[in-house]
Specification:
Elements lengths: L5 H4 L9 H17 L23 H23 L7 H10 L4 H4 E4 L2 E4 L1 H5 L2 H11 L4 H9 L11 H12 L2 H8 L1
Bound molecules: fe (ii) ion (FE2).
Amino acid sequence: MSQVNIGNLFPEVKDIQEEDLRKSVISVWEDAVELGGWKASDLHEIPFTLLIPDCSVSLVDHTRAVTKTALAIADILMDSYGDKVKIDRDILIAGSILHDVGKLLEYTRESGEVVKSALGALLRHPFSGQALAFKHGLPPQVLHMIAYHSKEGDLGKRSIEAIIVHHADFVNFEPLKETAGS
Ligand SMILES: [Fe+2]
């Protein structure tokens, strides 16, 4: 059993109203930590991307920022458009917290460095994350968000929640990439 307290790592998980969904989200993260062979102390050190050299933003901080960004977008859309845009808040939080969970399998530690794993070279995180979430019985709306949040989803039709997490994710990536490259 994982020693990591996922509720403490992602306080936003407590905002998921539906208890089974909340527990399943926690189970996926616990399983990913265990399957990836990570320790609790690793979790604040795993960078959220390997595309930014020496990235100092952790996967945990990125995931929280994306979740908070997605909720802020949802609040503005609901405030501005009311019933014209239907957003399932529980699904939005669950999919946001899980969108990058597959990175715990896509990455590994080698000689102290976080690098792409053998599995990750074949399956990027939308695939491994979706598979993990399927294993824990997450609903299709959440599986869809994980699978379609990244460029792999560009050819498909994203749900409203997937559109939100897709943009929340990139707005929490591009500015950091720009800053690192300048
Ligand atoms: Fe992300």
